[in-house]
Amino acid sequence: MQTTKHREARLPWYTIYPTVAEFSGAVGADAYEEWLRNLPANDPASLYLHVPFCRSKCWYCGFPTTITRHDAPIVNYLAALRDEIRLVSEHAPQALPVSDVHFGGGTPTLMGPVEFLALTEFLRRHFALAETATIAVEIDPRTFTADMAEALQAAGVNRASLGVQSFDPIVQKAINRVQSEAQTAAAVEMLRRHGVTSINFDLIFGLPHQTVQSCVETTRAAVAMRPNRLAVFGYSHIPSFIKNQRLIEEASLPGSAARAEQDAAIAVTLIAAGYREIGLDHFALPDDDLALAQKTGRLRRNSLGYSADTCKTLIGFGASAIGRVGEGYVQNEVTRDSYCRHIAAGRLATSKGYRLTDEDRARAAIIERLMCDLEADVPAICAAHGSDPIHFLDSAERLAMLAKDGIVDIEKGFVRVRRQHRFAMRVVAAAFDAFLDRVAR
């Protein structure tokens, strides 16, 4: 079936373009220092802080994390994180305004309440956080405490993302993540009681022993807690690259048809509960920022996924963190030890990056609109970037095939993904990826 090949295609997720595969050591700390110095002093920026620690390893997880039962490694890492914040602030215009802060992981809330408050206060001393700033944190409900909830409130946190994945106990055991509905509900209640009013849940389909029924039951249980938004991801099984996935029995994984049914069943359940589809894999209540941004054409896609954040600058702190400044992308040293060594030596930990060309910017804009709106006015975008739309449309050879398969409609350079084929938007975006055929993914 034509649509099956488009659903199962292994392609970039296009959170950024060009993708990390194009990053190289040609862009390092010296280039990043220059880019920071050239930032407009009055343009708001977003900050991302990566805290790569967990208490246990979820076998499906592909993120670089350190498993620790002790607090000392976390405390030492936080010292390096503060030093990097200071270094970056010294290179950037003084008191750079900040509208969004995101603490990601790992599990950022493994740091103690005192340490979290100290870190947010340190940020406020080096950047001008707006009073209305969105401050978000990722949370594992299994380790979340009332003391940390109080610290989040004191720090001004107003958004939280909770890992749920599945409430099916058979699935949970198979992925080494046992987490009851009661634990999740208790975390949600604590957050809301302490002023964190915007809640996101992460769900995953395609996990071992997962069925359509268990996906629907998990979704209904999640909806009963009424999160403001949900991210629904398909599990990607690549044990040759992610060693902990070798602990998952491949025979227990659902096939392509079953995965598609699970994805569709979750979407139907969420839409019936009043959530709106956002881009490829998000759902939000009508009054959520994501839904409002989509409605007004302001939805964005960055290295963190879908966002209502319109900042052009994203500064990443911590091991493996990715940032974007005017001239391009940068990424820190991936391993924690290497990152900490660079920071301890008093230098930025940038290991690689990418300098954007005018063509990259135009292609990125087309891909972003396709990923956010399921449509892109290629001539209008090209005009805004001083580019020739014929060049982009002629080079997008896959478009003709996609149109023939009924995935897209094309009229005078306006490309629209048919809504019933929303799952194939990455395939459409890939038609505008100039690197895809040159480098094997």
From TrEMBL:
Cite the annotated pathway.
Porphyrin-containing compound metabolism; protoporphyrin-IX biosynthesis; protoporphyrinogen-IX from coproporphyrinogen-III (AdoMet route): step 1/1
Q: Which reaction does it catalyse?
A: coproporphyrinogen III + 2 S-adenosyl-L-methionine = protoporphyrinogen IX + 2 5'-deoxyadenosine + 2 L-methionine + 2 CO2
Quick one: a GO biological-process term for this protein?
Answer: protoporphyrinogen IX biosynthetic process
Cofactor: binding comment: Binds 1 [4Fe-4S] cluster. The cluster is coordinated with 3 cysteines and an exchangeable S-adenosyl-L-methionine.
Record-linked Gene3D superfamilies: 1.10.10.920, tm_1862 like domain
Q: Which residues bind S-adenosyl-L-methionine 1?
A: 48, 105, 138, 322
Report the GO terms under cellular component.
cytoplasm
Predominant place of localization:
cytoplasm
- Identify a single GO molecular function assigned to this protein: 4 iron, 4 sulfur cluster binding
Give me the residues that bind [4Fe-4S] cluster, please.
Answer: 54, 58, 61
What InterPro entries does UniProt report for this protein, alphabetically? Coprogen_oxidase_HemN (IPR004558), Coproporphyrinogen-III_oxidase (IPR034505), Elp3/MiaA/NifB-like_rSAM (IPR006638), rSAM (IPR007197), rSAM_horseshoe (IPR023404), rSAM_sf (IPR058240)
According to the UniProt entry, what is the EC number of this protein? Answer: 1.3.98.3
Protein function: Involved in the heme biosynthesis. Catalyzes the anaerobic oxidative decarboxylation of propionate groups of rings A and B of coproporphyrinogen III to yield the vinyl groups in protoporphyrinogen IX.
Which protein family is it in?
Answer: Belongs to the anaerobic coproporphyrinogen-III oxidase family.
Q: Under which name does UniProt file this protein? A: Coproporphyrinogen-III oxidase
The scientific name of the source species is Mesorhizobium helmanticense
